[in-house]
Amino acid sequence: MRPILKSNKLDDVCYEIRGPAMEKARQMEEEGHKIIKLNIGNLAVFGFDPPDEIVHDMIRNMHGAAGYTDSKGMFAPRKAVMHYTQEKNINGVTIEDIYLGNGASELIVMAMNGLLNNGDEVLVPAPDYPLWTAAVSLSGGNPVHYICDEQAGWMPDVDDMRRKITANTKAIVVINPNNPTGALYPKEVLLDIIELARQHQLIVLADEIYDKTLYDGEEHISMASLADDVLFITLNGLSKNYRSCGYRAGWMVVSGEKRHAKDYIDGLNMLASMRLCANAPGQFAIQTALGGYQSINDLVGPGGRLLKQRDLAHKLLTDIPGVTCVKPKAALYMFPRLDPVMYPIADDQQFACELLSEEKVLIVQGTGFNWIAPDHFRLVFLPNQDDLGDACGRIARFLEGYRRRHGRG
């Protein structure tokens, strides 16, 4: 019989966070092995529960969640998001500028589907959250990766961005706070990127899903608060700040220079209608979350569990010979570097699989985040301190053996 092939639109798409190593881990679990999974920011499995008031509010409203809602979402949660944009100093946002989605992920794909023609280019960071690169490719566009500079604390290289803008460039993606590096961008960097967008009439797509997961007293600045003459698409949701990954409750806000974007906005409205609506139970969680007690502050502040785990993971990793890591200022991840002299890695996917086989620890290789060299990996620091210590100890043991096998011990 004729083989049934996947679409060629998937040729340039990868999502290594749930890639081959994840499949190998699943097989090992079926064989009875216990795997320490440091590959995905799935908070619930590490004992980070959503706030009780969110859960209770969803239960109370479940009887009203059976029907379709407005294609953009219910009025009350959209109004709560509107108030949140006001708190973030984003001007001119109305209810009609807000789209609720099944997580920010659905809305990222929607934003790209509505914008791109075949051959259009989008500037995407390297390293990136790989859904962005995938969404551009699936929408017929070409992702063009600009470098974030590790030596500068993983700040975007604005000069590299400038060099990569062409007549086909339509938009710039900015992930701030950043996944996978944990970098948080200062106002000066954001203004430089906005100036590029202004000069070249580009849309700015701002992924701000970790905007409350901040350490050491850091503050987040929403890009859309810094200009009114550029079109901004800002994406956020409950998954991380409110430990509600499975509720799939996200939002997208259109702001700034909307006058010349009517046709694009019509396209977003069409796509929102085609998917009928976001899930209603998740929508019920949004107003309660944004208006309630912000328990994330307890987790990231002095003595907080996430803060302590970040500090522990950073110390344990950087104590390993040949491992360096910019300490994250935000989010849930670290993106350590392996000295290529001490660790001559040719294929970092194979490296991740070897670590999994030998030590039962699952991480994601750096090239899975569209990084340019096989010398980084990402891990989440969500396990409790004992499990985190065990995981980092296993990584240290594996790396010691790797150095010895390659004559670098």
TrEMBL record:
<keyword id="KW-0032">Aminotransferase</keyword>
<keyword id="KW-0808">Transferase</keyword>
<protein>
    <recommendedName>
        <fullName>alanine transaminase</fullName>
        <ecNumber>2.6.1.2</ecNumber>
    </recommendedName>
</protein>
<keyword id="KW-0663">Pyridoxal phosphate</keyword>
<feature type="domain" description="Aminotransferase class I/classII large">
    <location>
        <begin position="34"/>
        <end position="395"/>
    </location>
</feature>
<dbReference type="Pfam" id="PF00155">
    <property type="entry name" value="Aminotran_1_2"/>
</dbReference>
<dbReference type="InterPro" id="IPR015424">
    <property type="entry name" value="PyrdxlP-dep_Trfase"/>
</dbReference>
<dbReference type="InterPro" id="IPR015421">
    <property type="entry name" value="PyrdxlP-dep_Trfase_major"/>
</dbReference>
<dbReference type="InterPro" id="IPR051926">
    <property type="entry name" value="Ala_Aminotransferase"/>
</dbReference>
<dbReference type="InterPro" id="IPR004839">
    <property type="entry name" value="Aminotransferase_I/II_large"/>
</dbReference>
<dbReference type="GO" id="GO:0008483">
    <property type="term" value="F:transaminase activity"/>
</dbReference>
<comment type="similarity">
    <text>Belongs to the class-I pyridoxal-phosphate-dependent aminotransferase family.</text>
</comment>
<dbReference type="InterPro" id="IPR015422">
    <property type="entry name" value="PyrdxlP-dep_Trfase_small"/>
</dbReference>
